[in-house]
């Protein structure tokens, strides 16, 4: 369950697993207090692997809404989630299928790296084909993705 929060007016709970929508996925981070988020930058700025970084909430959100993701299975207290997130600052082992921002946040709160987005993608052949074609289009010079779009219909 996700709870919508008007983030400019609200201070998220320490250690909260927060998410913000992107065009084809949801981006995840851990709120570490004082308006700061630790997240895996992934492929957000280029096709080069990003690192785990601490950024402002505004930078994390990128002008989009931010929600708190309920971590019902969390095994760590809020301060432990923050400590786990900060312990990996600078890590650069991003892998979209095995070590992405959602895997990172799950590991921080639950102790197990999981990504429901990846699990859904891998269980849906049409979505997997779409993702492969889209990634190919991006790698080939950020060409038009129009050819991949009919797969969604």
Automatic annotation (TrEMBL):
Gene3D superfamilies per record: endopeptidase domain like (from Nostoc punctiforme) (3.90.1720.10)
Transferase found in the keyword field: yes
Signal peptide: none
UniProt xrefs under InterPro entries: H-rev107_PLA/AT, LRAT_dom
Boundaries of every LRAT domain copy: 17-117
GO MF, one example: acyltransferase activity
Superkingdom of source: Bacteria
Keywords for this protein: Acyltransferase, Hydrolase, Lipid metabolism, Transferase
Xref: PANTHER family: HRAS-LIKE SUPPRESSOR - RELATED, LRAT DOMAIN-CONTAINING PROTEIN
Protein name as it appears in the record: Lecithin retinol acyltransferase family protein
Annotated source species: Variovorax ginsengisoli
